[in-house]
Amino acid sequence: MKKNETILLGHGSGGKMTHDLIDQLFARYFDNPILRQQSDSAILDLGTGKLAFTTDSFVVDPVFFPGGNIGHLAVAGTVNDLAVSGAVPLYLSAGFILEEGFPMESLEIIVRSMAEEAKKAGISIVTGDTKVVNRGQCDKLFINTSGIGRLEPEYEHISSGINIRPGDKIIINGSIGDHGMAIMSARNELKITTKIESDCACLNHLISESIMGCRQIRFMRDATRGGLGTVVAEIVKGKSFGLKIDESKLQIRENVRGLCEMLGFDPLYVANEGKVVIVAGADEAGGLLKRMKQHPLGAEASIIGEITSDHQGIAWLETVIGGKRIIDMLSGNQLPRIC
Amino acid sequence: MKKNETILLGHGSGGKMTHDLIDQLFARYFDNPILRQQSDSAILDLGTGKLAFTTDSFVVDPVFFPGGNIGHLAVAGTVNDLAVSGAVPLYLSAGFILEEGFPMESLEIIVRSMAEEAKKAGISIVTGDTKVVNRGQCDKLFINTSGIGRLEPEYEHISSGINIRPGDKIIINGSIGDHGMAIMSARNELKITTKIESDCACLNHLISESIMGCRQIRFMRDATRGGLGTVVAEIVKGKSFGLKIDESKLQIRENVRGLCEMLGFDPLYVANEGKVVIVAGADEAGGLLKRMKQHPLGAEASIIGEITSDHQGIAWLETVIGGKRIIDMLSGNQLPRIC
Prior knowledge:
Two copies of one chain form a homodimer.
Chain A: H1 16-30, E1 42-45, E2 50-58, E3 64-65, E4 68-69, H2 70-83, E5 88-99, H3 104-121, E6 124-133, E7 141-151, H4 157-160, E8 169-172, H5 178-186, H6 204-211, E9 217-222, H7 227-236, E10 242-246, H8 254-263, E11 276-280, H9 282-293, E12 302-308, E13 315-318, E14 324-326
Helix pairs in contact in A: 2-3
């Protein structure tokens, strides 16, 4: 730690500064073999079976936004962290930090959303905690959800990505940037009328019904904070392969693209809350895509790139005009309190 | 919900208002058989073995206090919730919500405390999350810890208290009110020189080494928010037995008693962070006490009361002058942000 260093918004970006903070502080002090995996969920071996365990705190501002609210997001976010690890999400905890004066009616809407989302996902919220802080000591409410899922041994490689190899295809289940731009458009300071909806959704059924049958699933991750760009940069970090994204294959809704351009954001790094990035063997990628398209949350799925044997350790965008742009981890903070 | 009702500080007290909020909102919407147990940890049956699962968010103010800090507390609090359920704590998650501008040096001290406490308790912090909010949108930092423990089927009755019966003894491992009064004395607004230290400690070794051998452990709970008073009120709620606490047996340190009197607090309802309340069969209570006294965290253990067949559903204090005082759940909020 440098003297007089303080926490900056970028430390919560999900990008490079978050990674540095984890490496220099959390991973250093908490060090143990499970934490060292540094994946979305910790894989626990209880002797009698493997579990995935994950935690996420949600501080999204505003708490209600087009397409969802903080409660909806808190359930989907943790369910997705388990599901992309190859686990079957089973149980969630819910910890609330509430600001004195928060309307009970709003809290009820949020809690109801959580219950509905949990029901849809087929999981149970089994334990909780409530803290209240004085007015002005937190902004409305924060929710932590931690989750437990059952992990079959055959899927244990998914979160590590250890089986990724050149030729593998990169698949995503639809457009990028929707969640982040929905939040931006909902913020009071932006009086914009574009109707952008968050893609916030639980992906566990899409994953279990359409994806897990594929024998060549090498890796999955949900592209949340830091966006698709950060996920692909993480996939290649320190690896002996490269990763190419074909810009012409990326789906970005017109209104999302417009707002990004207006505000100077790169959609590659804008948060999603219902998008899974999959690395799958080339032989099965076509069949996988077909199955995904039959699911409502996979209808717009497409192959957007591939793992290469050249450009080791580098992810890049092959632009529509034929150029190459390196995709690095997000540095600094693009959008605070996006989730 | 009443119209225009808002969240009040009392909803986070751990007393009656917290219980009402849980019943009317969380339990109502999240309803499922596991949540209905309403104990410190949820008991999960994964087919291959039982697990205890618990969550707690920590918002203590100030973050550094005599005898500990928020990190120390966040590990001990969740370890204790698992241990009092009869489980062996194994894994913790750690979710940080940090205020922009929080000194990195302070964060490092807190993270180091968490690591030290985890090591002492023999558990691993295996997964985490970091969010940063703008300056003024949270007060310094909040930490959520969720935990998983292994529960042997023979101890499953402990968190429900289903085996409690008249004649059973009430044991606590030492003095009450230390944590709450340490926080009060540490708050800037109180310029008091009494040196009161929090009792913040992981109780899992005391419990596994000294308590779990006893075949007649009927119930355990850590007396945190709401204090000893709220725990005993919860034990008898809706039950066909009563509970008597002998005031003369309660240990309250001189400086704690003094500060309580000065500020108008009842030590019975002041938070502890290293105290376990045990209900044990009368035949084994003496032997249990002896074993507890051999452990540093049990050196001051004593029998403070018993379960009675009369006064069903009521907990009361037999005062030193021979009077009776009903011990109800804490109503309203005694001390905000105590944990």
